Amino acid sequence: MKVARPVREGEWGDVSDGQRALLLPHKNRKSLLVATFIMLALLLLDGDARAQATSVFASGLRTPVKLIITPAGNLLVAEAGNGPNTGRISIIDPSGNRRTLLDGLPSGFSPPNNDPSGPSGLALRGRTLYILFGVGDATLPGPVPATEIANPNPSSPLFASVLSVRFNSEVEESTGGFTLTLADHQLLKTGARLRLTNGGGDRITIQLAADFRDFTHEARSGAPNNVRPANPFGLVVRGDSLFVVDASQNTVREVDIASGDSRVIVRFPARQNPLPFGPPFIDPVPDSIRLFGRQLLVTFLTGFPFPPGTADVRKVNLVNNNHSTLIGGLTSAIDVLPVTENGQDRFFVLEFSTNMLMRLPGRLLRFDSPAGPPAVVATGLVSPTSMARDDATGDIFITQIFTGQVIRVPAQ
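RE: above sequence
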């Protein structure tokens, strides 16, 4: 796979047009996030992938993007897949054993690098699991560099959507899994309810919960049909609403669960680039969303040239949708996890890299106060994207997207 290498200061003039297309997020926000993951992961795979205190909890996953933990203590992992419609949701039990819950989910190779894009978010409400999907291959490379056009024949009609999956506790504990077909995708697109039974007699019910636009039109010189793809990349449930963060459209969207209707409640503006090289403005790239009381917490990766110390965690007031900084001074923030114990709030923050241009790995931080300073919990993480905490033990589990692993961090 051909990927752009990170650009160092002073090398801007040596970057090809194709590499520049990957690195400038204002031209292609969705590709920026995925290409950044790939190029950094490949550069780091030969190094020390874990801090000494961490361990590999599960491996062999298909591009694990997000994970959550169930009340029964199992991990549910959203895997983007490794080919068309190979997205998967895995169940990993407390011993690290993996089973398939649902296979054959929408996924596709996304331009410009043919990167896998599929399941990208999970949220659980009772026995209903909500699965978010990225844009897949709903777009194709455009006629000039750094442009994209609509794909008339995507691998699935369900990209940039949310499915609801209902199953009982017996399915969670012992199922042999279910597999969707393209015909199932097409049926779900109509709004019909799909009921599946496997060879073991297990049953699940699946339905389309929300359907977003795959892209917005954004004409450019030489590419009048250019589109900006969506990139839904985080999901949380509160009451009768879902909240979805889009790393390409730079938005938070609220979905009414009963009707499936949605509306944008926040659109994050571009940020000024403080460095003397690169574009004058950089995209915020919101990439994770969490519930914290009556607020949403959103992390920001930020775009090229990935200025250290300019990423942050912002809180969104759900009463008036205003947003402000909760934790600043971060670099390439990719997830946040609020924990309240004994009346004290703490925040775990995952950084994808401590310095993109220097090719450094990621780390896990703990803030006992939003004002800091943070404690470094784990270092040497390769392409970390998401975390979940076992409240019974305090252990934290982290997905590493391009090593195909879940890493366990002992309680802190």
